[in-house]
Amino acid sequence: MAGAVVKAEFGKSFVGFMSEWNEKSWSNQVLAFEVIRACWQAGCREFVLCSGSRNSPLVLELLRLEQEDQRGELKIWNFFEERAAAFFALGRAKISGLPTAVVTTSGTAAAELLPAVIEAHYSGLPLLLVTADRPPHFRRSGAPQAIDQENLYGENVNLFLDVSAHRYSDLEDLSDFLLERESAVRWHINVAFEEPLVVGDEGRGGSLQGVEKIDPADERYDDWEMVEDFIDKSGDVVVLIGCLSPSERSTELVQALAQLALPVWLDAGSGLRESDILYPLVIRDEQQFFTHFSNKENGRVLRLGGVPSLRFWRDLESLDDIEVLSLSPAGEFSGLGRISAVTMEDVTAGLRLLVEALGENESGDEIKGTGRLDVLLEKYPQSEPAWMRKLSQEIPVGSQVYLGNSMPVREWNLAATFEDRTLSCFASRGANGIDGQVSTYLGLSADAKESWGVFGDLTTLYDLSAPWVLNQLGEGKRRLVVINNGGGRIFSRLPHLARLDESQKTVTENRHQIDFKHWAAMWSMDYLRVAEADDLEVEQIEEKGTLVIELCPDLEQTEAFWRDYAKEDS
Q1: Tens of pLDDT, residues 192-210
Q2: What's the CATH code of the domain at 286?
């Protein structure tokens, strides 16, 4: 069933629609309740509403159910803009591990969900998409609010259902689908409502009380061949760990890695990068280590979690002699365009098998050294990497940290302190997009006591409507750090763009002179501009609620840092 698109087709033509007219007809309210109940059985307890006319039966039914929910299990968030809403839902799913539903009206509103659905697909996250639609006979007619919404999200969802007020029997089959599922719940339920949309309380839906979540059977994979084949090969092994969900960041996983005692590169989104237990094994000068590793004979790479945000991972495309095994990867993707092995074995069990086969290893000095990096950070104290080191040291112990694509992730991985300050770090690395990052952070931060989101300036500009939800969130402290370097400077680090002249770089980097003071004021957020790294002191902002911190690094120092860092002997 995994990856399959299940499609229930109702009334594609006017003739088909009319033939159903005389069958038993259900009210829009009942249909709306049945759709909500199906989401509830999938484990969804949070619904993000983007209210419109066509989805009003769903909106009104959810508001009724919330009012009648004596146990306080049902949570409703409301947004005026669908793209931000979907990424906010993604943040909620990322932190809870449960599917969150986004409810939209018909037409282009449904299309706005696609970017977040793509990220959910490649990150292996659950997400429910409930889109209202006009009756089936309006399809392909060009009538207002009547685009073709059938299977709108393609293979990015693992279930598509097309239901109407006259036929919704396939909703009953979802119980079987839930029991048999092998992957995260990503559904698109397209609901065609008839006119009139709502008629008083006639035919209203039921109650969610007593409707429980359906859990799939706890089945373990029993395919050890790929792991055993990996073990049987010769050569040095390095472990790369990408983004992990909160449930995957287990003590058992850390202990297995410690016993394996192999060099390990940890993405910030793994949540393990600053672990005291793993500190002796962590690769801290990634450029020197992987330059050396690439030249070894018969090297092997074991990857856990999401796709690593690491230059070496991309280099593996052309390093065919290096064996790669992805163990239970997020979204079940290999993450490479070349041949490599992928197995969905239990991560901890797979690591224990490796421990038994490979035994203990000694970590070499090449892993431990950070002297070269420390020298450069001291030499260029106003560069972006130096700012990231400063941030990682100043963010209060125990805070939640979200790193928006793409430079904040890379710079945190490179330059942040390895001191274990119990920071809980997250990132969205499924599709590597920069849209929706602020919204995803706010979804993650809803219940956090203190959270920090770190974003580039263009990333922030992509998501200016995200703070709409602030007055619906808890009272935690939120710090939105915007690193404003006047454009997408990462593009000029690409070899084929680096040699362009300044006028051409204005286009490729999307250069600008925008600051974020008035954006903060628009959403009633506090604002602080910091131009010198030494001026950032957390004590001065301790009593603030939601705060935008605009950091302005020195562009010349940043460029000089990256030039020197690229030199192996620097």
Answers
A1: 998 888 877 655 678 898 8
A2: 3.40.50.1220
Q: How far apart are CA 569 and CA 530, in angstroms?
A: 33
Low-confidence residues of the chain: pLDDT under 70: 1-25, 165-169, 182, 201-204, 217-224, 359-370, 488-498, 505, 508, 568-570
Any idea what DSSP says for residue 396? P
Give me the pLDDT at residue 8, please: 40
- pTM for the structure as a whole: 0.91
Domain count, the chain: 3
Residues 258 and 170 both lie in one domain: no
What region does 143 belong to: left with phi over 0, alpha with psi -120 to 50, or beta? beta
Burial track 11-42 (b if 16+ CB lie within 10 A, e otherwise): beeeeebeebeeeeebbbbbbbbbbbbbbbbb
Residues 358 and 410 in one domain: no
Looking at residue 497, what is its pLDDT? Answer: 63
Domain of residue 488, residue span: 371-565
At which of 311, 333, 368 does a domain end? 368
**Residue 484's CATH number:** 3.40.50.970
**Is the same domain home to 174 and 89?**
yes
Q: How far apart are CA 49 and CA 69, in angstroms?
A: 17
* Number of residues in the chain: 570
CA trace torsion 275, 276, 282, 287 (10° rounding): 80
Q: What is the pLDDT of residue 505?
A: 66
208 in any annotated domain: no
* C-alpha angle 354-358-360 in degrees, rounded to nearest 5: 110
| H or E, element range at 83 | helix 82-96
